[in-house]
From TrEMBL, chain A:
Belongs to the alpha-ketoglutarate dehydrogenase component 4 family. It comes from Ascobolus immersus RN42. GO terms for cellular component: mitochondrion. The keyword Membrane does not apply. It comes from the Eukaryota. This is 37S ribosomal protein YMR-31, mitochondrial.
UniProtKB/TrEMBL annotation, chain B:
InterPro entries: Class-I_Pyr_Nuc-Dis_Oxidored, FAD/NAD-bd_sf, FAD/NAD-binding_dom, FAD/NAD-linked_Rdtase_dimer_sf, Lipoamide_DH, Pyr_nuc-diS_OxRdtase, Pyr_nucl-diS_OxRdtase_dimer, Pyr_OxRdtase_I_AS. The active site is a redox-active disulfide bond. One of its GO terms (cellular component) is mitochondrial matrix. Gene3D superfamilies: 3.30.390.30, FAD/NAD(P)-binding domain. Its cofactor is FAD. Binds 1 FAD per subunit. Disulfide bonds join 79-84. Residues 41-368 form the FAD/NAD(P)-binding domain. The lineage of its organism: Eukaryota, Fungi, Dikarya, Ascomycota, Pezizomycotina. FAD binds at residues 88, 152, 182-184, 353, 359-362. It comes from Ascobolus immersus RN42. This is Dihydrolipoyl dehydrogenase. Belongs to the class-I pyridine nucleotide-disulfide oxidoreductase family.
Amino acid sequence: MHTTVALRYARRAPLIQFLGKRTVPTGLDHSPRPHPEAPRASLPTSFAQYRERAQQHGPLSGYHAVTGGVAPREGEFFDRKELPQRFWRLQFSQEEMEVIESGGAAAFA
Amino acid sequence: MLLQTISARSASTSLRLGKKVAAPSLYAIAGRRFYSSETEHDVVVIGGGPGGYVAAIKAAQEGLKTACVEKRGALGGTCLNVGCIPSKSLLNNSHIYHQINHDVKKRGIDVGDVKLNLGQMMKAKEESVSGLTKGIEFLFKKNGVDYIKGTGTLVGEHEIKVNPLEGGEVKTLKAKNIIIATGSEATPFPGLEIDEKKIVTSTGAIALTEVPKKMVVIGGGIIGLEMGSVWSRLGAEVTVVEYLGAIGGPGMDAEVSKNIQRTLGKQGIKFKTGTKVVSGSVEGETVKINVEAAKGGKEETLEADVVLVAIGRRPYTEGLGLENLDLETDERGRIVIDSEYRTKLPHIRVIGDVTFGAMLAHKAEEEGIAAVEYISKGYGHVNYGAIPSVMYTHPEVAWVGQSEQDVKASGKEYSVGTFPFSANSRAKTNLDTDGFVKFIADKETDRILGIHIVGPNAGEMIAEGVLALEYGASCEDIGRTSHAHPTLSEAFKEAAMATYSKAIHS
């Protein structure tokens, strides 16, 4: 009697179970790690070096590249040359360069 | 006065416009010339094979402005143009021809004079290929992918120079993200010059103009055995030379390998395993291949009308311009990437045969989707432990997960269950009973570790196994799932039952 009751409640739990709708995990670590099929357990140093260099110019964008139009938004400019000419860097003449390099002495030579 | 002027210029590093100037983002720093142009894209995919074209379509579906650059002149890559698809056409039609000649009589079908029309068989193959390539072009149009026929070369961190196939002006594409999917090419055999007529790769083997009397296949992997099967069925005397002691290549279970070698042997293919090719030469109409035992021994000369070199494939990066960006490759020529398919330049990702992992079209497709999802969502997924392999001989061979030799080597306790197709009702009615299904499971938990099938329809049947492995199923989960009767898939269920308990029909 007891065995029958026990068996009635001892339902097999399949390993395959519904886990709910898929969601994109959050808080993932996106630092470079070796590819699972790569023969080596470490990445070349160039991966870290590139990032270190790039970080000097501002933080790398989060986990993925920025998407959307490639052109700058209204009022934004990626390069000084895109601005009116009065904002361009002035060209130094050879004479000016010599003045700078000589600390001004070349102006009196 | 002059010094004051200079000082003022030096200090003028910020632009005083009263308007916002964009902070230097990574891509702006890397390539400062992102002024407006009609050829700017969010994603440019280089290579239109199964990895590349799937990535391009997915990227467009994700709302990214996408272009795909392909140098072949037709989409689909090696797989669709000179690989999986044309070979399946020939495998299917040569199988029918072989069946009519050798099999239908016992089924009660008497046929008259059966003749091979190789030209028509090749035409059927070409129609399949052209229909499918045009289908991808249609999908590109439907999803808004810019299809650019030409050779793409990386010339800047965000710039790809495209040399158009049909001549015309070289143009430069600009892209925030680049996906490299340039695929692979057949590895040549040192000392044998490929002419695609007498000494052929798989590309030449699917386009022979007559059935060779004798064919030698160097390499007993999947490509060699499939193409060997085609020409053997059509009447060639085929000898497969394999350096290793077993056929099938890496990943194939040893028990399956022995079984399929025996079956293909019965079909007329000769095997020389544990044998290495020493040299070869073309003498008139004949190719002479000198072989000897891999461990050393007496040399022997094999003569053939056609020699198929099928010793593997290598990544294809010719003209890609990796050197322009100093992107690394490993000792096998594979582009080095991290777990999110990124090269050292995070916006340049690499998928498919040209990087790590098995050279399989469906693996490249999965990576194409994942790479795009990393770009658009920051999360992608490929389970490299659940990528199926299929060999389309007859019977087919298919597997997923670990082989028994792999599991044994890992030291894990495991259970094995098998079920022969000779005990399956549908296989019996089909008079097609060669082969078996084999499950390997963790002894303690019953979780499936590997599934191996040699038998009719194995390539379709393995899908259930891949799903089970992906979901982390146990053999009992399969065994307790109803499978229709009478179907070949009952053999799958019964093999699972044999692993955790006992099969009913054997």
